[in-house]
Amino acid sequence: MNKIIVLGLLGLCSLEDVKHRQLTIIYILMFGIGGVILHLLVPVCSIYSILCGMLLGIFMLLISVVTQGSIGMGDGILLMVTGVYLGGYENLRLLMTGLLFSALWSLGLLAFRKKKRKDEIAFVPFLLLSYFVMLCGGV
User: Fold this and answer.
1) Which is the most buried residue in 25, 37, 103, 126, by most CB within 10 A?
2) Residues 139 and 22: beta-carbon distance below 8 Å
């Protein structure tokens, strides 16, 4: 059940990130509240794992503030919510694999001169790709 919910959340946010270059926080927070309720009814991982997963999102929010928005705050909030569903270790895997995919994509765009170094790219689709890879047993 958690896998389908995270897949739906990342899919919805990916479309929104590509189309509008921003995320609607209300949807993400609704998924977060649903995740907390789901874990109260059917606990999948420990509360410590959930808190560690959420801590990763909080860390991303702090990076967003320090870099004055170079990383979107919506990405940090999204990672907090995925931390509720995935726990600490899996959320870290999601982030690291997403960063790897986005770095490779960015290098390709720079090499073919499609984007400049300061241009923005949507990050959530790389999280979705990362989650697909995780579900298929890779990484």
Assistant:
1) 126
2) no
